[in-house]
Amino acid sequence: MTNPPGSFIWYELMTSDPDGAARFYGAVVGWTIAAHSDPGAPGGVDYRMIVRTNGGNAGGVLALNADMIAGGARPGWLGYLYTPDVDAAVAAITADGGTVHMPAHDLPVGRIAMVADPQGAPFYIMNPIPPEGEPDKVADAFSVTEAQHIRWNELATSEPDTAITFYQRHFGWGQEGAMDMGELGQYRFLQHGGDMIGAVMPLMEGIPAPTWTFYIGVDDIDRARGAVAANGGTITNEPMEIPGGEYAMNAIDPQGAAIGFVGPRKG
């Protein structure tokens, strides 16, 4: 893999209804979510690929079964950060106040673990196995500019300073620049690999616990807004202009997963 360590390399939607999610994200984003579990998924797990119109994979969908839901799993999105040594990363994260939700283990696609930062925001770490015949494969689920990719990674947290230091220490991120949100605090930008990848913001009213929110690129923010409303989603923040002239909005998908969208206004 040629992505630099600390990159977002994959995104996963956990959902109670993968077929319903397929209809929603197909209408809003243009993705195709497979109708059946991937043949390489571990036994008994319903895991489906999210495919862009260009044939590339945008991420995966994990169908929550009854046992997962009984154990507390709920619909939501999680990101995967690349590390070349998952076990060492787990040890360092736990020594720094993080927690482990899923111990390091091997899958056919690589070694992974689910962890949380010291404030409790969960994410995966992974050392993937490149596809056969493609040792230099670049994971492109994240793109700064392209529709049908995740374009922005936003952390809402109870301790922004501590969280920024944590991700700088373990994943090599930078933090330069901020936008003043008045009484709501600072919206502090994150950099990695030469790109601005997202931001850290204080935990706000209505967000019960520290969490990552991911913004999917769309071709037209107003078309996407209409598709959200027409396909069972709930708009939580209407489209608002962001630096650079594009627009971002927030929504809840029909199964209850929070998600953001970003793109131009064409109307």
Description:
The protein is α+β, with helices and mostly antiparallel strands and 267 residues long. The protein has 2 domains: 8-128, 2,3-Dihydroxybiphenyl 1,2-Dioxygenase, domain 1 (Roll), CATH 3.10.180.10; 150-263, 2,3-Dihydroxybiphenyl 1,2-Dioxygenase, domain 1, CATH 3.10.180. It has 5 helices and 16 strands. Strand 3 and strand 4 form a beta hairpin. The longest helix has 12 residues, at 160-171. The relative contact order is 0.17. Residues 7-128, 149-264 form the VOC domain. Keywords: Dioxygenase, Oxidoreductase. This is Glyoxalase/bleomycin resistance protein/dioxygenase.
CATH architecture of the largest domain: Roll
CATH topology tier name of the largest domain: 2,3-Dihydroxybiphenyl 1,2-Dioxygenase, domain 1
Low-confidence stretches: none
Main sheet record = 8 strands, mixed
CATH class of the largest domain: Alpha Beta
Identify the overall geometry: globular
C-alpha Rg (nearest Å): 18 Å
The amount of helix comes to 10-25%
Question: Mean pLDDT, as a whole number?
Answer: 95
Strand order of the largest sheet: 2-3-4-1-5-8-7-6
The helix-and-strand class reads alpha+beta
User: How far apart are the termini?
Assistant: 40 Å
Provide a brief overview of the structure:
With 267 residues, the protein is α+β, with helices and mostly antiparallel strands. The chain has helices at residues 18-28, 66-70, 86-95, 160-171, 221-230, and strands spanning 8-15, 32-33, 47-51, 57-63, 76-82, 99-107, 110-116, 122-128, 150-157, 174-180, 186-192, 195-202, 211-217, 234-241, 247-252, 258-263.
